[in-house]
Write a structure and sequence with these properties.
This protein is about 45% helix and about 20% strand. It is built from twelve helices and 13 strands. Strands 6, 7, 8, 9 and 10 form a five-stranded antiparallel β-sheet that branches. A four-stranded antiparallel β-sheet has the order 1-2-4-3. A two-stranded parallel ribbon has the order 5-11. A hairpin with a 6-residue loop joins strand 3 and strand 4. Helix 8 crosses helix 11. The longest helix has about 30 residues.
Length: about 475
């Protein structure tokens, strides 16, 4: 194989490849031999059909298959030997080919630009450590306690009121007749929530333990027996207990019910939970500081094809006049995204960063935990959408790259209070809101960068998520 690079200026290259006749004949003979082994021709022993006979029947198809294989093998080898990394799929122009001939073609390729990732060591970013005050932990602890039910048996003479738990058995009829599902045992209702049948709760207000109460309601639209929908029904309820929700005592027992070892352990867990809420948002600020500085790293030339593809992504859903109006902003945004992607990918490759299947599966498992009861839906979504898996892998890849950049860059650690963290995040969100009107349309305001099938995505939302309940272990 003879390879000649016909032009060396800029990122565009024309690579002339000549594969000699002998090599082509070897490829062809190998393919003919494969077919001969599996082809039976009348008058010839199995595997002994002459090449000329096979050529008459399969010649054109065989040449096409061999041509595809040779082009794939030789083009990849030509790029690898000349250390050319294509930004997009190369275009091949066949000049000469055929049985008994050498193969000649010209491969037009746009090369990825050189990226100096050493400059990333000069990046500076703020790193935050939030100190959680005891009062904040106690506030969250009290909030959690208020969400916990602590029902205790009421006095037999206590009349049920809103907020009380009423326990009862019932027998229901409609037009004096029984119906499917008309009996219930040990039914429990917290009065005032109206979760059973609309208007049912109110009629139980004032009942006492051992009372019998008839409740009249209209059966709801979603009642299983369709012929009874909206019909009046009478529920004869035998009240077996009335319970009062008492204030939860915050002690070791309370902590154990929430999965902690004791009260001090629960407070530590809550403190960490609050810290994590702010840490995630503040880490995003650090990440955005890093990404903003990537734009200062010089790249001589960006592949036009990648920029055009990115503009097409950014302008999806926009009208022609809108695209024309935002043409300059679209191009600036596209170039920034491509540049970011090129730098991150180059850094990732040089530092041998990759996402393992175990890491990918672990991230999907996290999503299962975040959506209890919907695991099957999430699983099916990823199984049916390969692009979703690719996007998730790209996000993990980017996070690992950013994490490694942080290790090598210069961090400025700031220890701040919860109140200071809130001010910083509010200020950042105000800036984003103010500047958003100068960027391309709202649905395109993320900062994604895509190169060579690897996607990097950054989100600028920095508001911490507050969790009021500590999950059980």
């Amino acid at each position: 194989m003879k390879v000649t690079i016909e032009n060396k200026k800029g990122l565009g290259k024309d690579i002339k490849v000549i594969v000699d006749k002998k090599t082509m004949d070897t490829y062809l003979e190998e393919r003919y031999e494969e077919i001969r082994k599996n082809y039976t021709l009348k008058g010839f022993r199995p595997g002994k059909a002459p090449r000329e006979v096979l050529k008459r029947q399969f010649g054109e198809a065989i040449m096409g298959e061999v041509l595809d294989k040779v082009l794939k093998d030789t083009s990849a080898k030509a790029l690898e030997e000349n250390k050319i990394r294509p930004a997009t799929q190369p275009k091949i122009d066949l000049k000469k080919y055929g049985e008994g001939k050498e193969l000649e073609y010209v491969m037009t390729v746009t090369e990825l630009p050189e990226v100096d990732t050493k400059q990333l060591k000069n990046i500076k970013f703020d790193e935050y450590k939030v100190t959680i005050d005891k009062k904040h932990t106690d506030e969250r602890l009290n909030q959690i306690a208020k969400t916990q039910n602590n029902f205790k048996d009421a006095d037999e003479n206590h009349k049920a009121m809103k907020g009380n738990l009423v326990v009862f058995d019932y027998h229901a009829t409609s037009d004096g007749k029984d119906f499917k599902g008309n009996d219930g045992k040990n039914t429990q209702l917290i009065l005032g929530k109206d979760l059973f049948i609309k208007g049912f709760d109110d009629q139980l207000i004032g009942v006492k333990k051992n009372d019998t109460k008839k409740v009249e309601v209209n059966l709801p639209e979603n009642f299983p027996e369709k012929e009874l929908v909206n019909k009046k029904a009478i529920f004869e309820c035998k009240i077996t207990n009335v319970k009062i929700n008492q204030e939860v005592k915050i002690d070791d027992e309370f902590a154990k019910n929430l999965g902690a070892k004791d009260l001090n352990g629960l407070k530590e867990l809550i403190s960490k939970q609050i810290n994590d809420e702010y840490k995630n948002s503040l880490d995003l600020l650090s990440k955005n500081q890093i990404l903003d500085q990537l734009d200062k790293i010089k790249i001589e030339e960006l592949p036009k094809e990648l920029v055009d593809q990115e503009i097409a992504v950014l302008s999806q859903g926009m009208q022609e006049d809108e695209i024309s109006k935002n043409k300059k902003d679209l191009e600036i945004n596209a170039k920034k995204r491509i540049k970011t992607g090129l730098i991150l990918n180059e850094f990732g490759q040089k530092n041998k960063i990759n996402v393992t299947e175990q890491e990918l599966n672990a991230e999907i498992q996290k999503q299962f935990q975040m959506m209890p009861g919907q695991e099957k839906i999430v699983k099916e979504y990823y199984e049916k959408n390969p692009n979703a898996i690719a996007s998730l892998r790209g996000s993990l890849y980017e996070e690992k790259i950013i994490s490694e950049i942080k290790k090598q860059a210069n961090s400025n650690l700031k220890e701040i209070s919860k109140e200071e963290a809130e001010k910083i995040l509010k200020s950042e969100n105000d800036k984003m809101t103010k500047s958003s009107s100068t960027v391309v349309p709202k649905e395109k305001k993320d900062t994604k960068s895509t190169t060579k099938s690897k996607k990097t995505t950054t989100s600028k939302k920095t508001t911490p998520k507050k969790t009021k309940k500590v999950s059980k272990k």
